[in-house]
Design a protein that fits this description.
Length: about 130
């Protein structure tokens, strides 16, 4: 029932931009937290950013702060990740994930970047930054 589908990945040169989309269905964004994660070969999955669908509160990993922007369109049930000034280090499979706001708030000891907190995941989209 709950589905998340990422799109917008691709091959770009350093310094360029990409915007990823996470199309959701089966739930209302207003009651969920949506996170963007990435995983590069041989590395752990990293929380990139998240947004609360209810009030639009956002959080970012230090490595992408001031370069990436997360946003949402509740009417379209879609969350976006605008990525600017891309670096080779940003190369990874990017996935979006969802968890109910209630569960997120009750998950004692967890943070927005804890991937185990999220219940639903998209298939991922590849972002490659290379010259």
């Amino acid at each position: 029932q709950v589905q998340l589908v990422e799109s917008g990945g691709g091959l770009v040169q350093p310094g360029s931009s990409l915007t990823l989309s996470c199309a959701t269905s089966g739930f209302s964004l207003n009651y969920y937290v949506i996170g963007w994660f990435r995983q590069a070969p041989g590395k752990e999955r990293e929380g990139v950013s998240c947004i609360r669908g209810s009030d639009g509160t956002t959080y970012y990993a230090e490595s992408v702060k001031d370069r990436f922007t997360i946003s949402r369109d509740n009417a379209k049930n879609t969350v976006y990740l605008q990525m600017n000034s891309l670096k080779p280090e940003d190369t990874a499979v990017y996935s979006c994930a969802a968890v109910s706001l209630l569960k997120f708030r009750l998950a004692y000891g967890s943070t927005w970047s804890a991937h185990r907190t999220y219940d639903y995941w998209g298939q991922g989209t590849q972002v490659t930054v290379s010259s």
